[in-house]
Amino acid sequence: MTLDRNGDLAPLRFNGNFTQQEPLPQRSIDAALAVMHSGRLHRYNVAFAEESTETALLELEFAKYQKQRYCLACASGGYALQLAMRAWGVKSGDPVLTNGFTLSPVPGAIQAVGGKAILVETTSDLVIDLAHLESLIVQTGARLLLLSHMRGHLVDMEALCELLENHGISLIEDCAHTMGATFQGRKSGVHGIMACFSTQTYKHINSGEGGLISCDDDVLIARAILLSGSYMLFERHLAAPPKEVFEQIRLDTPNLSGRMDNLRAAILRPQLAGLDDNGRRWNQRYDAFANVLHKQANTFQLPARHPAAYEIPSSIQFRIPRFNEQQNRRFLDECARRGVELKWFGAADPNAYTSRYDSWHYLETSPLPNTDNILRRLYDCRLPLTFSVEDCELIGTIVTQVEQSID
User: Rounded distance, CA 106 to CA 81, Å?
Assistant: First the structure.
């Protein structure tokens, strides 16, 4: 128990760092040092006695983890999205459906390949609104959905896939927040034609920056490999289709150089072994925070998980509908004063990694009133594995105490 200078019970405070990650495993450090000692950082730089490189082995191992045939490692998650859309065949001006609630690299990738982003409403559970999606399919004639599993929340994938099949729509999954998650026991990313993952520092495995594409389609992955900059060295890819598939397209596919290097791949490979255990650890931390808020269910609204979904929540989101603008500001400021770093998706001006669709001025957007209403009081809190379960309980308690102090 801590007392303030007046002898009263001092308000709780948290002293942790919301952006501090766990150290890399020793195996990652050793593998990185071996690559640096060799000097062979480029993914196609193979010594005479070597059968393959760290990057090719990472692709093989991640494809096995996903239970898919193929994988391609590239420079970032956003670049993976671009490669996947280009491999599918997005051309200038093509409409591409995507979530209205996502992060800027997703519409940015659509813009980069020349597509026109068509934004879909979000439900209170922070997943894509299937009714609005279907209406936009009919209105726009779009043939592709780039689905963002924003903040790790999984929509009913069976219902979504049935809807898309009925309308002849292709699906590319943005799994930046769902590596290791499942729906009906199937890995996130296996429901569409291609899936894109991120290995940026705040994702589930960490190489600073990096991206992965998983896929079962011979031609799509061959195109992506050529687009990534294979220099006709596609036969050095282990998680790739046979040479004959490349021969059909190799001279018609441009090199857009965005490969992953062996240093990052070496750092990532050992982390795959701990991915599922870390998923359980993230769920423990999420539950510790969420259980505190659930005790005040009339005040805090948390997104509900689909019963068939197993999510890997590296952050938590909640809403406080009663707050007006002034109360909202006071809440954020007081939480910050007590050491709790919350992000707010309702801000008109983008802040750090947080923005909303009407701040992406390079897009032609239509109003999304349901999404606007949800984001207006939506708060977001990182849950790094450097926090203990007790830390997350404390953060949740501070959040509830601060809310109660705001009149």
Answer: 7
Q: Which residues contact 302 (CB under 8 A, 6 or more apart)?
A: 290, 293, 294, 316, 317, 318, 319
Structure tokens belonging to residue 266 = 């070496």
Q: What is the pLDDT of residues 350-389, one digit of tens each?
A: 777 777 898 899 999 889 999 999 999 999 999 999 999 9
Same domain, 217 and 325: no
Q: Which two tokens stand for residue 263?
A: 């240093």
> Where is 82: in which H helix or E strand?
helix 77-88
Verify that 152 and 71 share a domain, yes or no: yes
pLDDT at 1 over 70: no
- Cα separation, 133 vs 232, in Å, equals 40
Where does a domain end: 239, 255, 272? 272
Do 240 and 108 share a structural domain?
yes
pTM of the model: 0.95
β-strand partners of 332: none
Q: Which of 360, 366, 365, 398 is nearest to 379 (CA)?
A: 398
Tell me the residue range of the domain where 262 lies.
26-272
